[in-house]
What does this fold into?
Amino acid sequence: MEAKNSAKERMVQSALELFHQRGIRGASVDEILKRSRAGKGQFSHYFKNKDGLVLAVVDYLEAIIRSGQVDSNYSFSSWDDFEGWFGRYIGFQKEVDCELSCPLGTIGNDLTNDQDHLRRAVKSFFDWSTAQLARFFAERKAAGELVESADPDALADLCMVVMEGGMLMSKITRSTALFERAADQVLSYIRSLR
Amino acid sequence: MEAKNSAKERMVQSALELFHQRGIRGASVDEILKRSRAGKGQFSHYFKNKDGLVLAVVDYLEAIIRSGQVDSNYSFSSWDDFEGWFGRYIGFQKEVDCELSCPLGTIGNDLTNDQDHLRRAVKSFFDWSTAQLARFFAERKAAGELVESADPDALADLCMVVMEGGMLMSKITRSTALFERAADQVLSYIRSLR
Amino acid sequence: MEAKNSAKERMVQSALELFHQRGIRGASVDEILKRSRAGKGQFSHYFKNKDGLVLAVVDYLEAIIRSGQVDSNYSFSSWDDFEGWFGRYIGFQKEVDCELSCPLGTIGNDLTNDQDHLRRAVKSFFDWSTAQLARFFAERKAAGELVESADPDALADLCMVVMEGGMLMSKITRSTALFERAADQVLSYIRSLR
Amino acid sequence: MEAKNSAKERMVQSALELFHQRGIRGASVDEILKRSRAGKGQFSHYFKNKDGLVLAVVDYLEAIIRSGQVDSNYSFSSWDDFEGWFGRYIGFQKEVDCELSCPLGTIGNDLTNDQDHLRRAVKSFFDWSTAQLARFFAERKAAGELVESADPDALADLCMVVMEGGMLMSKITRSTALFERAADQVLSYIRSLR
DNA sequence: AATGAATGAGGATTCATTCAT
DNA sequence: CATGAATGAATCCTCATTCAT
It folds into this structure.
């Protein structure tokens, strides 16, 4: 997977993996370089500093998720698609034995106040994701599949918040049970608005 | 507030503040000692190492929250009490300009796989908190204030997940709007079960 | 000024500016290349290594000063010319707010013992400059405009030393006052020998 | 000489030696620590960063020179004392085979615009030194040993400038000849004012 | 004549931890 | 209870130089 990609790509992908596992501070530049088989100089050749690499990682994540190259995609067209959305996150956690959380949540949580540029990049991804969910709910409502009182934006916010909280709580408790029950409740709630 | 407390207390409280702000890795022992006006020796006298301090911080947090010394307390006895629960977290975020997240969520997210002891301590807090919420819902249900199909445990999980996700998303987006809308939806849902 | 010069010229001129501002070690090859809009390959094509670039800079400086292309020229033919000599250096310092010193003094001071080749190049420039001053004093003495006891070589040395010391002290004190007073004393002394 | 001094003293003295030989940038912290048999931590324990060490070095130099612990002292009380002043610098250069310059001149020349705090410290030393020379000339003048037209401050400036320029030119030319002749001219000039 | 990818040594700094007093 | 000296690993970053195209 990292075979003959460019050094830059290898660095970004290795960084993503390590940031996801241990957060930004927990992943050293040296380790990222070792994993991506690149020298120190390659790092500063392509990135101003570690923050520059973080930004590249966030941009990369946003790009692959937006383009739907990744499992947890956001191109819902039916209620069935949507009902599987939480499931994909829960499935991911099960695959990794609940040792990880959401990569962007992890990165976002690790940022400090002086990294506003990075924070905005992470926020931009969440804005887009929430908008995808909101668009779906708005379409369903326009099709008469949601009651008049349903607020598409608020429903989207609820889903995002439950997803992020669920991913984090799964990591901390090493179990998806909590996440699954919370997701079920959300689905019940939304079904009650149909 | 840290005036004539013992050196140990001052260290724990300073560590809590800094861990909350910047995560475990982001707060150096030196800085914690400086803030708590303590020397290196005091540190190793009271704690085996940095992990020992983290554990003390988690225990301290659990203690003050369980004992209700802190605003976001868990001693609900009425629907009104409960409805204010999210509000206290949202109010906290507003006070700190959305620059922080939940201290235990932040700490929990920062832990690595080899810090299982600490993870269990954090989990223990969440288990307790969730149990408080579940107890409240069970009591309401026993009092006939929740429909038969309502699952107290699942509702508690939903609340915890929304609280954690909401705190994190507020930090990342520097706004409580998302959190507020998600919390409103949860309250609407629960009201619909009454 | 660096518009359509050759890459080599641009590199030498950029290096001169940066060496002058921050010394040899303070100016990185990368920065010099960026400023001269040249690539890494251009650098190694024209120069063996950084020392080779330094040598080219010293040669360039000597060439432009010898050829009189630069303000502080050494083609004195009258006492008036000479009396303006210190003034040109003082004027330069004022223009640059005393943030620089003599470029060759700065470069010479930065050299280490293993850079003897470069040191000789710098020395060669100072030998030539001193010789110009000495020639002038010798001519004046031959014309009967200096007393018998006046030593043209010693006077030239005094001028060079005061110029270098004055440039350095102006940089350190951020003022030309010291330099101006010292130069005035030298001029008084020389006038007393006429 | 560095035997059982404190680690801090050893670091400062080693730094002085290396800064004197190769300038600030030319002396790495690692090398200074190796020479002073101190670990990395000792460095940051005592100094904020490399600039902090430079400042300590400048302060140390100023202290030992002011207190007269060093050869090139500034406690003139007679013309003989004064006439030996240049000689001590010239003698120093001969001892070190003209491989060094004035330590404070070297340090001062190495400073960049963002090191204003350090520059002021260096300037402070030169202000003091110049004041010592000026005081001496003023006393001589008061004693009727200098003509009315002699300006003590200007003479002091001349001496400082010749000393700094002489030290630098000696290093560059690897010879004290220039410095000696310039110093002789200054002494001749001052004698002519007696 | 030109580009920029790649390398790796070295430099400054931070940090957790131990130890002597 | 308390101080702070000392250690050395690790981290982030800079830089001169080489090489393939």
About this structure: Residues 28-30, 40-41, 43-44, 49-50 of chain B lie near DNA strand E (CB under 10 Å from a C1'). Chain B has two domains: 4-64, 71-192.
